[in-house]
Amino acid sequence: MLKLSDLSIAYQDKIVLDHLNFTAEKGEIIGVAAPNGTGKTTLFNIIANYTKPDSGRVLIDGKYTYRNEKEEVLIHKLLTTFPEQKDLFDELSGTAHLNLYASMWNGSSKHVPAIIDKLQMTHYVKKKAKTYSLGMRQRLCFAMMMAADTTVMLMDEVMNGLDVTNVALISDCLLEMKRKGKLIFVASHLLENLDLYADRVIFLKEGKIVHEQRFTEDRDIYLKVELTPVSYDELKTKIELPPAHVYIAEHLLCIPLDGLTLPEQTRWIEQILGQFGHHLTVGPLGTVEYYEKYYS
C-alpha cells in the first residue's frame, strides 16, 4: 500500500533520515515515537511531497510515486495530513471547515453530520473557529481528516490539547477508521495511548528505525522491577543476571522470561522477590519502556 524506499535527507551536516525503508498496508495504524528533532515531521512531509528527499522514493498503491504533477495529484486524492490549528479560518464555522474538506476530497459532504455527532461537536460546530478553545480546535482538525476520508492519513500530535475524555473519543474513532481499511500514521507524545490502538510503533533515532514494536504478534515477556542504580549495581554482585536483561533509564530492570521453563521462571521471580519484595510485574515491554530505553 505504502512503501518507503531508501529515503535519505540531510540538512547541512545533520543526517535526518538515513536510507530508511518501510512498508505499511491498508487497515493499519502506525505509531511514530521519537523526541522532537529526530525526523518525524520530515518523514511525514516527504510522504506528502512537501519536502523532497535527497534520495529514495515514496510508492503508494504499488504504482504511484512523485515523478510528475499528474501522479502527485493522484496521490493527494488518496492522502491527507493533519491540519495545523494556525491554518484554520477564524471567521468560518466548524461546519464550513468540514464541508470544505469533504468537498475537496469526496465531492460530497453527506457524511459530515454523522462526523459532527460522532465527535460530539453539535453544541459549538456552527460557531466561528475564533471562538473555539484549544481542545475544540484540535477536535475540529481531526474531524476535517474524517471528512476528507482518504485512504492514507498522516497525523502529527493528533491528541495535543485534548482532555482524557476526548483522547478516548479520538482513539475510538481511529480504531473505527482502521476497521474501514484506512492506513493511518500517528506521531504522538501520549505513548501509553499508542499502545491502545496502534498495530505497530516505530522508533526513529539517528535517521533509522531502531526498533519496531508489533502489537499484533506475540511479544517477549519480562520480569520487571523498579531499581535505583545503586540497587542495580548491588544486585549484580549477588545474582548473575542473564545477558539479555535490560536496565532502562536507570530505574527499571527487565529480565526476559521467554525460553525459560516454568521452574526457571519461578526461580527468577522468587529471587527478585527475595531481594526486593515489591514493585515487581510480569509482562511485555510497552511503548513507554521502549521510548525510555532508546532515548533516556
How does the SSE layout of this entry go?
Layout: E1 2-11, E2 14-24, E3 28-33, H1 40-47, E4 55-60, H2 69-76, E5 79-81, H3 94-105, H4 112-118, H5 134-148, E6 152-156, H6 164-179, E7 183-187, H7 191-197, E8 200-205, E9 208-214, E10 222-226, H8 229-238, E11 246-248, E12 252-256, H9 262-275, E13 280-283, H10 287-295
Parallel strand pairs: 3-7, 3-8, 5-6, 6-7
Antiparallel strand pairs: 1-2, 1-4, 8-9, 10-12, 10-13, 11-12
Helix pairs in contact: 3-5
Can you describe what's shown?
By secondary structure, the protein is an alpha/beta fold. Helix content is 36%, strand content 26%. It is built from ten helices and 13 strands. The chain has helices at residues 40-47, 69-76, 94-105, 112-118, 134-148, 164-179, 191-197, 229-238, 262-275, 287-295; strands spanning 2-11, 14-24, 28-33, 55-60, 79-81, 152-156, 183-187, 200-205, 208-214, 222-226, 246-248, 252-256, 280-283. The strands form three sheets. The protein has a six-stranded mixed β-sheet with strand order 5-6-7-3-8-9, with helices on both faces. The protein has a four-stranded antiparallel β-sheet with strand order 11-12-10-13, sandwiched between helices. β6 (152-156), α6 (164-179) and β7 form a beta-alpha-beta unit. α3 (94-105) runs parallel beside α5 (134-148). The longest helix has 16 residues, at 164-179. The protein is globular, with a radius of gyration of 22 Å. The relative contact order is 0.14. The model has no long low-confidence stretch (mean pLDDT 91).
